[in-house]
Amino acid sequence: DQQVKQNSPSLSVQEGRISILNCDYTNSMFDYFLWYKKYPAEGPTFLISISSIKDKNEDGRFTVFLNKSAKHLSLHIVPSQPGDSAVYFCAASGDTDKLIFGTGTRLQVFP
Amino acid sequence: DGGITQSPKYLFRKEGQNVTLSCEQNLNHDAMYWYRQDPGQGLRLIYYSQIVNDFQKGDIAEGYSVSREKKESFPLTVTSAQKNPTAFYLCAGWTVCRNEQFFGPGTRLTVL
Fold this sequence. Notes:
The structure holds 2 protein chains of 2 kinds. Chain A is mainly β. Chain A has strands at 4-5, 10-14, 19-25, 32-38, 45-51, 56-59, 62-67, 72-77, 86-93, 100-101, 105-110. In chain A, the strands form 2 sheets. In chain A, strands 2, 4, 5, 9, 10 and 11 form a 6-stranded mixed sheet that branches. By secondary structure, chain B is mostly beta strands. Helices cover 0% and strands 52% of the residues of chain B. The model of chain B has no long low-confidence stretch (mean pLDDT 91). The interface between A and B is medium-sized, with 21 and 29 residues.
């Protein structure tokens, strides 16, 4: 049973536009959420996180929104750049040190 | 230069052989993790260790073994019992101060 779901395996966005990546979760005990970016044959790198006490966290071009009632979070990238092309994973944790990862969304930003 | 080191980057083994993947860290992480990545399946947790000489199974521990004799080292052995060992393996540590997992560069294991 997939506790963290990224239902869009891929997304294509024009440079300069907004990229919106979505993530849904089922476990109401999750209280901390992270987004990672991954290039092929490399380890994921941390992008941004949000605690369940917030509904928005912003860091430069990246903003994460959390809707606890819908068990949904999204990552907004504005403006999108070609270097943003990668696979993005959302992850969630609850009362343990374990992270549960989604299956990833491949973002392609084209000129 | 600090961080999490995984070696080698690429590893080839014959079917039926055990193979050990190295993971070393100098970031003083208490907790360390092993994941495997397969196309379309995200990152799946194999084993994790929260303190030295202790470790717990993750979601897909069958066919794998680990040890944590030192805080800095968390090697993963892929045994011949693992039915589909060809994958990209990632080691991570938990940074409490930043509340995130920090990943190594990964090892791609191919079993021929």
